[in-house]
Amino acid sequence: IWHELVNDTIGGRSILVSFCPLCNAAVVFDRRVGDQTLDFGVSGMLRHSDMVMFDRQTDSLWQQLSGEAIVGSYTGQRLTVVSSQVVPFGEVERNYPNAKVLSRKTGYQRDYGRNPYAGYEQTGRTLFPVSYKKSSTIRPLERILTFEENGESLGYLLTDWNKLRVRRDK
Known about the structure:
Blueprint: E1 5-10, E2 13-20, E3 25-30, E4 32-33, E5 36-37, E6 40-47, E7 50-55, E8 61-63, E9 69-71, E10 81-82, H1 89-95, E11 144-149, E12 152-157, H2 158-163
């Protein structure tokens, strides 16, 4: 919630872990574009109630949810998504006792036990105006699980996913 971007390297791969608390979206990207490895920061701007990132090399602006450059030298380019999961800390602690996690010693005074957006996702509306097609089945801020299989993107409402006992596609 408090630190929305992490530039890191795992297994020799330069990655960007991103989280936007306003749209509740966590996405991991490869930080390489062409032959350049980019470092990202939070611009402080929002677009469609989603965080806008910037790269420190060119100051291009990037949409957090899609990884698309929307302003600057890289306009139109997309970061490559890296497969990832959102997992409760207790599960990581049990299953991966040697896992590395971010330290709370950041140099900033934060109440890490408090969510400044608590209850926001239950409101069913965004804090800032967003243009979207209204749907009778999907409300704003609904959690969606996404997968990619054979180059095809698949998405499931989390509420529907939890009701399924057997899952089959195609």
